[in-house]
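Sample pair:
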Amino acid sequence: MTIDWQPFVKLVAEARSFVITSHMRADCDAIGSELGLALALRSLGKHARIVNGDPVPPHIGFIDPSHEVLVLGQDVTANDLACDVLAVVDTGAWPQLGPMADVVRTTAARKINIDHHVSQDDLGATVFKDTSAESTGRLILQALDALGVPLTQAMAIPLFSAIGTDTGWFRFSSVSEATFAAAARLVVAGARPQAIFAQLYEQNSLARLLLQGRILSNVKSHMGGRLLSTAITQNDLRAVGAEPTDTEDVINRLLGVAGTEAALLFLELSPAETKVSLRSRTNLDVNAVAAVFGGGGHKAASGVRFPGPLCEAEPAVLHAMCKAMGGGGVKA
């Protein structure tokens, strides 16, 4: 799927000020894409700010050493966000925008959406999407090429981080020749893979490590081991002093079990909301399962914000997943 970037180039040429945002609990693909785009726009003499609904998660704080990412309600208010163009990257879903959703809805600015996820709401934006791309970070690299912006090390580091994390460090099925070609260009521009890997995967807090132990000890097997699930509560987080973002990536450990085809991770956000991560390593389309509950993402990796407690989310999503896998449903 090839994106026509000419409307984007024309829009950038006509505009002077930009606000860039992404999804709540942003990962490296979201933050890296925001930073890469903001730096590119500034190199063209544009005014660009990054504003999200919540702070950069501590475990990926290295990606934003200059604290470019502002937080709505803490660093700026909605009234401060007048601009010519509002860009939403790495999501096309209203629920994922959190507090920034109201800003996106009410802005008088022109809107663009750069994303690689299958799911898409109508944000009232011009959409630049390639669902075959492994990361939004690589799409931002394409956008930079279309603008004729030379790559700098400051751009290369967050964009390499975006691609590296969204591919599970280049091991997911979404990886292609284009992935490695983009990564090579970013290395030439100054990204250091070994240093980025160390920051991402070798700087865990003790709380994060202890939480991973709890997550793995809570694993349940379904459908003869074809499906594994695990759940974490607010009490679990408090017991080890961890944050909700400390659950990121642990679900992929479940897919490492022989015979496992899919995995679910349930995270209690509050008594009235549960985050569910869905993963597949077969042809099972977990995006279709997530869509049943208003979520979405990719065929192999999707998410849901379930409007109910863990005790309701777990059996409901497990039943839907088992049904999609050819089973008759299970009890949590």
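The mean pLDDT is 95.
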